[in-house]
Amino acid sequence: MAEIERLIGSDGKLVTVDLGTALDGDGIQDLDELAGGTSGDGTGEGWYSVSALAETSALPSGLSVGDLFWDDGTLVPASGDSVQPLDETEKSDISNFSIEMNKAEIDVTTISDGVKRYRAGKTDMTGSLEGITEIGVTTAAGYVLNNFIRVIEQATDGSVTVNEIDDSPIYLKGVVQKSTASGEKEAFIWAKVSILSTSLGAGGEDAQSFSGNFRIAPGDPEPTFYLREVA
To answer: Quick one: pLDDT at residue 181?
Structure first.
């Protein structure tokens, strides 16, 4: 199948991610076995975050703690290697997202310069997302609405689930190429973000929608763009 190079909106998606329980390498078991399966059954197939590197690591060369890599489950981590699987939740309520990047202009002009001279400052990243309000998704614990107000859900049996305000940072995969067909490239931006604003409402015959803005949160990982060639 020919590689998709010219993307359209439906090639992408937005995914929130929880990091799973760390799998500590022993130099004997592969990721399938460490994930609770048997070697070769594909239980451990997926994306991982590096949480520790052995002095002589078996993980892909060049990676640092916090970086991601994909494996089919056959990798055998060395003793001292530790990885966390990515537990992804696709946000079906998202209709579009964007991440804008720019650098500050630092004026370094001196009297002897004939024209103004500049250096680039640190990169600033701002993100936004918009979507259609979907009960159970838009209102999910730790997601857009719950970042700002409590969410209380009562079941038919009378039981109540209370989600207090949770404005802790979340991990986002902003996928621009979601196809994993042979010969194509999976592509996404990976970042830890804080949601800083949102809106929610309804009007007339329009679909009920929401929007939100986010910024990069403190700590690791550094925002990174990943490309994976699919075998």
So the answer is: 87
